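Question (not urgent): is this output format expected?
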Amino acid sequence: MMNYKKMITDVLNDPEVKQNQRLHTLFSKSLSRYLKNHDRTEIAYLVNDISYYLILNNYIAPKIVLDFATKTQKELHRLRGLGSALDMLATSILGFVIKDKVK
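Got this back:
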């Protein structure tokens, strides 16, 4: 599992991000929400906000921000994949249980 707190803190400590008020505020608020809720949903919101930032800024951002977004998206995608695999397994088991009860 990724250490989101450390990753966001590293981004906030980057000199380029410190100089960019929009990015610094974006990551600061996200870190506060994440520390309060300890929920990966906050990280997904942050990645979404980074996407909007990139669109509005001609896809230009400090390298550390791009690296954060890439790593985080990959991790969230992997976790969603695990969840869907478990869901499919549970559904198939539930299907077998229901078929046995119908007989």
